Amino acid sequence: MKRLTAALLCAALTAGLLASCGKENPDMSDMSSVASDVQGVLDNINSATAAGEKETTTPGTYNYAEFMTPVWEGETSYAETVFMLQKEGGLPEAQLLYTPEKVLKVQSPDLTEPYEEGRDYTIEGRTIRLTENSRAPYMTEADMYPESPRGTDDSIKVGGGYLALNLPNGKHFCEMQLAVTYTHKETGFENFTPSPYGDKTIPKTLQQLQNGDDLNIIIYGDSIGGGAETSGFWKMKPNVPSWSRLINLGLMQLYPDSKVTMTTVAEGGTATQWGIDNAKELVASKKPDLVFITLGMSDAHAIYRLTPEQFGENYQKMINIIRETSPDTEFILMSTMLANPEAEGFTGRQAEYLNPLQEIEKANTGVAVANVTEAHSFILSRKKFWDISGNGVNHPGDYMTRVYAQCAMQIFIKPE
User: Fold this and answer.
1) Rounded to a whole number, what is the distance in angstroms from the first to the last CA of the chain?
2) Cβ-contact 350, 301 below 8 angstroms
3) pLDDT reported for residue 57
4) For residue 19, what pLDDT is reported?
5) pTM over 0.85
6) Are 97 and 71 in contact (CB under 8 A)?
7) Is 75 in contact with 184 (CB distance < 8 Å)?
8) Which of 55, 133, 378, 387 sits at 20 to 30 Å (Cα–Cα) from 316?
9) Residue 284 confidence (pLDDT)
10) Which residues of the chain have pLDDT under 50?
């Protein structure tokens, strides 16, 4: 990751993209090509930095190099998001991933307003707590756990009661999550192994990139594959784009001689059976060099309840169908994040779907797995789902979208 970060620090990129949640978006292939990326990057570029100079970032924009630094590496956590929740009789608070050594900044959700320690918040261990007169946004426990359902705005909570699907103030989750940047001593994620460099798993793809050849990529999956549900998805500051867009920008930096074209083929709420049914027409017919498959969240839903064995069989069927027409296509299988463990019907066996994907990686050539599942599992062991979700139930927010991209980028970065 150091190689990518060093390259990006030479020109800290900021960009936004509204990713499609529908079927193939004809504009997506154009917007994701290197040629069209250039203007979008220039429109939102941060101040260039040189060795020893202080980096400045325009309020309301994100720093690409910082946002793509793996959250499990290093001793600085950049813009870690927290959802401030007030319990009855207490002050609003949330948990950080690590115990801060020094808090560098706490910002409003759109990264435009800095908050002051003592005036707006206090820090105690991993807990960040708002003061009585804080300017920062928060919600109450009653807002998030209503006593009675409010139509389609709420879901049944595991164990009884209800859980907010939509915020009662009408805001999106990305408008309520503060961004905390701090240093810390602890590093790494317990029970998490980042994906290795892909020279053994997707050698053809890497060779194309190294040769400066054009690379045609398809993102194939559900609403998570389509970019739901970042600030960029809602066209709001700081305009963090989809994880696929973040990857594309990273590939531009690592392999500047290659023209990387990404096409998103995504359908919200779909499971692997949809992937099987549409693989030939929507993917194989285009003969892509590389396919990211991002399904699994809905397969564990109460509607489907696929076993890990069934899930793995369906993924293998998709690969087989695509390779019947396009035998040289390689794959990166994005293991799914977890659903909100409190959301009845949404939470299920998502965590168990990682193993069959890893077995497919072993059994096939040209297949790599991006280990998102274990990264998310560790994060949830220390933070609330709302801290990092885009909808409170089954979509990543800005922070978790970054984790998606970081997990996949490991496959493209050659160790030093």
Assistant:
1) 9
2) no
3) 57
4) 31
5) yes
6) yes
7) yes
8) 378
9) 98
10) 2-3, 5-56
Residue with tokens 């970065």: 413
**The pair of three-digit structure tokens given for residue 332, joined into one six-digit string:** 């990166």
